[in-house]
Design brief:
It holds the Pfam family HTH_28. It comes from Azospirillum rugosum. This is Transposase. This protein is an all-alpha fold. The chain has two domains: about 5-45; about 65-110. Helix content is about 60%, strand content about 0%. It has six helices and no strands. The chain has helices at about 5-20, 25-30, 35-45, 65-80, 85-95, 100-110. It is rod-shaped.
Length: about 120
């Protein structure tokens, strides 16, 4: 995902629209942004009075709570030779929380837990 447009660019597009220098499509070409972006900015300013971006919503909440993390730590301590799928199965058996191997991998990395990788 690319970087968000600056607040300054949004303000320049909206000022140009308010001075009737063109519609959203013309302004999109002029300022080198997508048509949808220009239309959305104009619509938000007109309907909501909002001239800035909405704040970040925070993303998806974590699936694994503190208790689940402690169980995962214990699983790695007991057997750091297990595969991600085995960790998923063992975690589900102990906590009832079903996770994908990708989520377990990201959680292990976030916690700084090393595991032995064997072919």
């Amino acid at each position: 995902m690319g970087q968000p447009y600056s607040a300054d660019l949004r303000e320049r597009v909206l000022r140009a629209y308010e001075r009737h220098e063109g519609g959203p499509e013309l302004l999109a070409r002029r300022f080198q942004i997508s048509r949808a972006c220009a239309y959305n900015w104009v619509r938000a300013a007109r309907l909501e009075g909002r001239r800035s971006a909405k704040p970040h919503a925070g993303g998806v909440p974590a699936t694994l709570d503190a208790e689940g993390v402690s169980v995962l730590r214990a699983l790695v301590r007991e057997d750091n030779d297990a595969t991600l799928t085995q960790y998923c199965d063992r975690l589900a058996a102990r906590t009832g929380i079903t996770l994908s191997p990708a989520v377990v991998c990201r959680t292990l990395k976030r916690l700084g837990l090393a595991r032995k990788k064997r072919r």
